[in-house]
Amino acid sequence: MEQLSEAGRLGGVFHAPAETFPDVSARGRWWVPALIMGVMGLLFVTLFVQRVGFDRMIQKTIDASPQMQDLPADKKADAIALQRKIMPPVMYTMPVVGVLAGIIIVGGVLLFVMNGLMDAGLRYKNALNICAYSMLPASIVSSVLMVVVMFLKSPDEFDIEHPLAFNLGAFLSPDSTSKYLVSLASSFDLFTFWMIALMAIGFSVAVGAKKLPFSKALIGILIPWGLWVLAKVGMAALR
Fold first, then answer.
1. Are 114 and 208 in contact (CB under 8 A)?
2. How confident is the model over 230-238, as a mean pLDDT?
3. 190: containing domain
4. pTM of the model
């Protein structure tokens, strides 16, 4: 197979993933899409701070928390001051840390599943490449759409927890719906399914469709995803 350039790999996962992922798995540089996603995340946070601001986000958090509403005025002021101190560094570090942690953890989990349960015979670098390039299209498209929606809406109306109506949770009222139901519904997300489909294609073509067909690779990805959703819903129910 002809070796692709890095631009060819990055563009190929959008329009020709089945033809691109063999080269991605073998010769991809997983840190390149990770860097792009991190920069996109930092750009979104910068625009969010300019358009919406930390104070609006903090106020929404307070308004949605019965525990905060019940605090005495001086305690509430202390909590707000603490959030103002913590939120900026957290918001600016999360895009980079989140992307790296996501690729490293997801890559490790899927490598364990594919090698342990399906005898894929892959190396960790193969899994990192497949996961990183699979995450890139949905990350770029969702980031662009979030910026567009953020500037189309009033700053007071923008909800950073549900910025886009591409998951079922966006259609539920957080005030009248149980948190675990919102968490469960939010897991059924179009961009997540796009990433899962690309990962299944990536693992299938990297190993070989005869040894690891798309359907089998898809099941191997849906198993840990389902466990993650159950854990997330359980945590929401406890809260």
1. no
2. 89
3. 6-238
4. 0.92
